[in-house]
Amino acid sequence: MTLPPFPHGFLWGASASAFQTEGAAAAEGKGPSGWDAFAAEPGRIKDGADAARGTGFHERYREDVALLAGLGAGAFRFSVSWPRVVPGGSGPVNAAGLDFYDRLVDELCAHGITPAPTLYHWDTPLELEEAGGWLQRDTAYRFADYARVVAERLADRVPMWITVNEPAEVTLLGYALGEHAPGKKLLFDALPAAHHQLLAHGLAVGALRAAGARNIGLAVSHTPVWPASESEEDRFGADLYDTIGNWLFADPILTGRYPDENFAALMPGPVADDLAVISAPLDWYGVNYYNPTRVGAPAPEAVESFAGFEMPAELPFGIREIEGYETTAFGWPVVPDGLREMLLLLKARYGDRLPPVYITENGCSYDGIEDAGRIRYLDGHLRALHRAMAEGVDVRGYFVWSLTDNIEWIEGAAQRFGLVHVDYPTLRRTPKDSYRWYRDVIRAQRAVG
């Protein structure tokens, strides 16, 4: 069944990130990242995949840009590796690293594809990570310096910028639960990492604009939170999770306030002054959506969340399974209308303060080249997105996650999110059925747009 028509000029794109695809972990002067060090520890990558190799994008970027062109993509959301550009996180700039992104941007422009770089997609330079990473205020200032360097080189050809990606995941999975780099298990003592990422975003907005960059946003993960029941205990747990997962990041950015004064009191530094920086006006707001989350009171023992991460029993909430829906190869429930629900929640909460929205990530893990499950997932979510737009949410574009299969963080090569299959031993690319489906969607939309 043909998708309903999206507005003329709607941006159709695909996404990727540096750590997950580039490889060349020590090539041309690149410094190590916190994720490089974390992934090198035995047992961190579940399937033992070589994260340092990625998908070979650093060497094969022209091949992947050709795949984007064959798709008809209007934009490519990639990330710039901070330690490839500034190996120590601060100090000398690596000219060869900047040259790589210069070539990539030129290649995209030559094919009529909008470059949409993300400046931080989790790969903190190792030297900064070892000094405390996002627990340290100085990291935010070093990030702004790096953002300026990149913009001074690329802003003449890059018309769309993303500062940081998913600060909630970095805080929760990296600093609170220890499942991701840097592997710290600080629970609520991880909150400074949230504040400093937000500050980094705000400082980077100013640095980018000073360097001539325009059309700036960020990518924030959002999930509708469903209470496990109507009991007071379950609703309390769900509300707290909702505050931490959704509003702890969006509220400071869009309103200049934390959602709860108790959280504000736990943040470091001159919080009121910082919030004025964090809430610098944006040109657009990016939403990463995968599925809803069911939450209730704490479980009597550690349970696994939808992503397979252990949730310690001492947390004041517990993740519950969502039943009655198809699940992806990752075990995530397929709930397309959750995207519409989340967008309407954002519109209701922020009103005119919500800038135009881009869906900066949406996708799923399924095995095989004949990936009918992915086609069903994407089709359902695009229809839900269209309904949200019909109900008044101003959405300007959609980026599928991801162009190719990639190193899915601690899952390694086991979870495949790509429209293009990667044979990891050879790095050979093979378009999947979903690639051809998305190509046909883009063609049909342009024909009626």
UniProtKB/TrEMBL annotation:
Coiled coil: none
Catalysed transformations (reactions): Hydrolysis of terminal, non-reducing beta-D-glucosyl residues with release of beta-D-glucose
E.C. designation(s): 3.2.1.21
Keywords of this entry: Carbohydrate metabolism, Cellulose degradation, Glycosidase, Hydrolase, Polysaccharide degradation
SUPFAM superfamilies given in the database record: (Trans)glycosidases
GO molecular function: beta-glucosidase activity
PROSITE patterns linked to this entry: GLYCOSYL_HYDROL_F1_2
Recorded superkingdom: Bacteria
Family label: Belongs to the glycosyl hydrolase 1 family.
Full protein name: Beta-glucosidase
Species this protein is from: Streptomyces noboritoensis
